[in-house]
Amino acid sequence: MLHPIDFFDLTEFTHCEIFSGADEVWTPLNLLEEYLTDWLDTHSAVLDDVIVADTARIHGQASIGAGTVIEDGVCIYGPAVVGRNCEIKQGAYIRGNCLMGDRCILGHACELKNSIMLNDARAPHFAYIGDSILGNNVNLGAGTKLSNLALSSEKESQTGKRPTIKLQINGVEVDTGLAKLGAIIGDNAQTGCNSVTNPGTLIGKNTLVYANTSVAKGLVPGNSIVKLRQVTEVIPRS
Description:
Blueprint: H1 28-40, E1 51-52, E2 57-59, E3 62-64, E4 69-70, E5 75-77, E6 80-82, E7 87-88, E8 93-95, E9 98-100, E10 105-108, E11 111-113, E12 116-117, E13 122-125, E14 128-130, E15 133-134, E16 139-140, E17 145-146, E18 166-169, E19 172-175, E20 183-185, E21 190-191, E22 196-197, E23 201-203, E24 208-209, E25 214-215, E26 218-220, E27 225-226
Parallel strand pairs: 1-4, 2-5, 3-6, 4-7, 5-8, 6-9, 7-10, 8-11, 9-12, 10-13, 11-14, 12-15, 14-17, 15-20, 16-21, 17-22, 20-23, 21-24, 22-25, 23-26, 24-27
Antiparallel strand pairs: 18-19
């Protein structure tokens, strides 16, 4: 139920190795920095057939796949790996420990931090993606925010650590072991404009989240529709 294969088809993902041996779908987020550093030590940084705008900035170790376009004002902090034929649009921000598959889109004013995007995942406009994993062909509607830190998450005075995010799955408490966890979104799922997922949201394959919906943490089964029940009233204008 919480295994990576319950959420993703990894057969065509170049970096499927990061999921190997993971019992819980969020485990790869803990492994990202080490995996990316090791991978970047043995692969080319930027290929010749990549279009990088003069005003884009790349800091630290980063690898950009063939056919990828990086537009004006993009800022990338490594370690980061961007796959082939991706689009990183104007003003996007990749903020370290990020792994993108092939044909992904990170759109205008989007921020990606400590996250994985599988092949064909898209966040075309104004999205925040923190400590999250987007499956194959996931699409985030404009303004989608994947919140990764609970409001009540304060550091302990003695240890300086935050409490870990715990989920209720079928009446059983599951400790993720992560202080920060955004959303895990399965293959072919979609979110509507201005939707928000709360820290520790797991969304199954082929699920639709309607616009303006705030999704509670925990598991949303695959092939579901998450709706916001809202009453509107239209009255004559005086």
